[in-house]
Amino acid sequence: METSIKSDAFDKFVQASSCILNPEIEAWKEQGGKVAGFFCSTVPEEIFTAAGIMPFRMRGTGSTGTELSDSCFSAINCSFPRHTMNQALKGEYDFLDGLICINSCDHVRRIYDNWIRHLKTPFVEVMSLPRKIEQPQIDWYRDEINVLKGQIEEHFKVEITDKNLRDAIKLHNEIRSLQKQLYELRKVDNPPITGTETLAVMVAGTAMPRPQYKALLEELLEDLSGHEGTGKYRARIMIVGGELDDPEYIKIIEEQGGLVVTDSTCFGTRLMWRPVDEDNLDPVQALASYYIYDRPSCPRMYGDQERRIDYTREMAKEFNVDGIIGERLLFCDQWLVEHYMTNLDLKDDGIPFMALDREYILSGKGQLRTRVQAFLEKLEAAEN
Amino acid sequence: MAKMDIEEIKAKSLSRYKEERDYFKLLLSAAKVMPGEENALQAKLLEILLDSKETVVDCVENDKPFIGGYFCNAPELFTAMDLPWFMVMETPFLAATAPYLINDIEGAEEMGLGTDLCTAIRLPMYYIENGLMPMPTAVLGLLYPCDGAPMLHQVLQHNEAWKNVPIYSCDPPYKSDERAVEYFADELRRMSKFLEEHTGKTLDMDKLVTVCDESNKTYSKWQDYNELRRNVPSPHGWEIGGAQAFAISQCFVAGDPRCTAWFEQLYKCGEARVKAGQGANTAEGWTEKIRLLWFDIMPYGWVFEFMPWLETEFGAVIVMDMFGNFPYTLIDTSSEETIFHDLAKRNLLDAPMIRQARSTAENFSEDIRRMVTDYRIDCVIWPGHMGHKDGSATIGIMRETCRELGVPFMHIGLDLFDKRYTSVDEVKEKVTDFFKGMGLA
Amino acid sequence: MPTFDEFIEGVCRYVELLQEQDRPAKSLQFPNDPEQLREGLPVQIGVNANQGIILRGDTFAELGNPEMGSASHLLWTTDSALVSDGKMTLIGPDIPESEGGSLPFGQVLLVSGPKLTPADHERLKGSQHVGDHIDGYMLRSTSEHIWARVSKEAGAKGFDFETLGRALMSLVKSKVPSVSAMEIIFITSSKKDVKGLDLIVSETRSIGREMIKETWKERGFDIDCEVDCASCHDQEVCDDIRDIVHSTSSDEESDELRVVDNPVDQVNAESVP
User: Which residues of B touch A303 (CB under 8 A)?
Assistant: First the structure.
């Protein structure tokens, strides 16, 4: 990645985000550490940290094809699970000691069914995530987390005490707070870090032992303290969408002059904008409440569109955004309809919005450039 | 969308609803002049359907309470509360061959709803956004079996005019154990309270017992009938007794003696054919050669162009399909507790599509396994509807199940409601290649 | 991996308890050889033995109508001491005494074999669904419980639980040769007794699911196909896919491949617009 940031920590983040098995994980494994993969940002990763297991957010990074997973999925399935499953079938995820799947969407939830039939990961479980965000659903998810906790304890022969959990929540909250500080730096006219670079930092945060990531993030924030970014750009852009873990996608937007200053994505602010409640006497209840209700939601959570659009509006205002790009992986019903509603709402607000479909691995770069250029021209015309 | 006031929506939606009702009147008049017991049954089914449509029209015109429902929301509860209902996504299933349907699909595309979202979900979104759907007193949603369902309900909540229509959506869990059934029973209880609160109706437990007892009678007769389809040759094919059984027991009415009577008559028709050694063919000069499991919804948008062809060209009879299958357990009406528990179980674990697509993929393979064995199936077709994305991510599992069973499996890739996605000719070509390649024809 | 052993013991204790409570009961001992088991039976056993369906009006007796009570389980073990080979216990009335009636029906198949593993569970579970293998006996197409009809013709020939028990033992032992011992329990005494049985073993469903899941994981993803390539009409497509897989993975990993499934379908899937 081309960058003006001079920071060893940042270099490590870039490396971690650009591959699956990074040196930090290798070192962790060499020391006897366990790694559990998980799909979707609604899986409470704190539970693994509390168990002394490194949580790893699943990706298909580095995939070039779906030749192996095509026997599991069909052409109308999202390319994210197809590429990720392909990577797994190629052996890229052989380092996992466990995997937690979840019913996040129609495509990703079937990874569980295909995984248990084709791969030999020793511990594979599936969680039931409700769609509603009310108290009975929080209670259901609390029970789900407790079930998972019991399964982890039994399989990995560990005890997850309330103290372990509270410590884990505290650590993850500290990371969230540092990531938020990183985002705050982007509010200025010439941010010291681009959207491309920020995404690399965020992705790395799901792929390293968390205490180590936290230390590196502190180091990066220090390195960035005197750093001046470029003030040359055509417009300040916010990205809204789902699974987006490839900084190269942002890079194309930024190369056209659209500086990405904030987002509502599940590798972005939705991961960390709000903390888990550390005062709740029951840490499992706190996690359930956080993942069902407290954190900014994605469209799979039902009945929350008003809060979602308000969150988008607030972020756009806070980061002085000129226009919003809604990205969506092809065949995703959830984001298709969400962007449809977002477009209507933002039209009423006078905030320019453009919805873009994409494949998981970066393709159609020319078309993407053209669409972004047209959007930026529209923003500039509106400005003048 | 241009903003419309409530009176404008009422007039516009009623006009469309009556148009749809009249389309079914036309079909009914055609069915009435056709000879034979099976056509009499078709006519009876259309009469029940039309009656439910007339009731909705009456409710809209005279401001009586009625609900916009989804499928698998325990409709016995609505019957017990004397609440008429229509399904917010019924048009693509019931009136898929209506002349205006293709225009509506194009309208949905023009709205920006793309071409890869399930047509059965896009269409009701289009109707809501364009004031073409009657606005009920309350809406009941269901947040599965696919991602499209909650998005449809959220569009409804987002729409300026519908915002004030109260909505309750049951949230089925992804698990299928006793904890999940109990949780879903509580969802149904909360749904009943919601209905009481917003419609002014009350749930009388004695009435619910009566309705559930009747519903049990209906389902018992359905199962009796299904056993007949195990006969070689099957007494009926795609035209009657399969998916209609689901529609009449859950979609138009539930726990209704007319429905029970319909199944009894259906059983008699089927039994007479079995005793006479008669198959699904009538006078067309073909015989049953291939016993087919169509493991999905019927291709309603082009059913008449395809299904008769399967029979006359290859003698391929749809002996069973996903919605005609009977995995149901009967409701124990001994207490309120058992009723809600069993209604939850029926609507969470038993009802088609929810049963397979809501949760992990076991029931895709379990059901294929059981149906292939019980119904002496020669081959399985998973149509691969463009909206059934979880199922399309299960094709490897279904294929492997069929391989273990030693029956050929085919995945087509089509839109059950829009024949422009994969043309009927293309589908026929693929099916022909498959039958020939597998030595079935 | 949890086993069914404690549940087998639980079922046996439950049967003893019912017997102590003076339920009508009988216990029979059958030979252990699958062929001998079929000898002298009043009806045919085997593939297509039941040619047609049994209509409502042709039913001698009904077993397991949900209103009467129904439960069906198969439990296996490697511990031969837990299963008494060839033993059948019936608690409650027999079929010939129930002409025109409907009996509650609890059925438990207990099997053992020193070489049985969780990999056999799915096949054993499936072996309960006897389909068209017993003349005059039709299992209705239901999902979780067991519901059956005995035909008038079979009833007239004396079809009873001994017939059913011997037939089931013969069929299961033939289908799964690693079964070395099998015992059967039928309960027809009352809905309450059947429900009690179901409660004792209900947990075994989730254990069974776990066994199936673990078996899939053990089996892994295999390129091997049981069909002989020379006689397979998919060979050309399959070869193309193998080539693609080889070319895409050769520079990354070893020659050990983890593909390929049904190539026909892959082509179909790709042709979707």
Answer: 154, 157, 169
